[in-house]
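Next up, sample data.

:::
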Amino acid sequence: MTALPADTPFDARAFRDTLGRYATGVALVMARGPDGSTAGMTINSFASVSLDPPLVLWSMRSDTASAAIFREAPGFTVSILGADHEAVARRCARTDGEKLDGLELAAAPSGSPRLDDAAAWFDCDTWAIYPGGDHDIFVGRVASFGARLGATLTFQDGRFRSSDA
């Protein structure tokens, strides 16, 4: 491992590549705005925060086209993608088009959409939204959740993988 001298200019690409060494889970986060509009995107920033109260977090770029829907929605769902959901992850990572059209969605107890065949899902009330540089950090209080057996989709070094690989 090579460490950079303290006076080396910051290299954002090298920083991102180094972060990519950490394998993460892949999820689809969705929300329904007060006007009924829906938004969804692939994330790999999902993490648990607290068991009491049950809190989770995720983040998104502040300038994302659907940011207003997520900020105004009373809550959101997080659908953990199964190993067979790589096409869903790629589709919902795009910044164009109707990403959610044609996906098999179910209504979470709150009424927010969630992926019907997700490996796991969390239905959350928005607890707080914090600024985090060029991202917004969403913290949600988990109201309900569910899971099924099977391998999950992971992401490392710019590639999708399976949790059973």
About this structure: Residues 26-145 form a domain with the Pnp Oxidase; Chain A fold (CATH 2.30.110.10). The chain has a mean pLDDT of 91. The chain has one domain: 26-145.
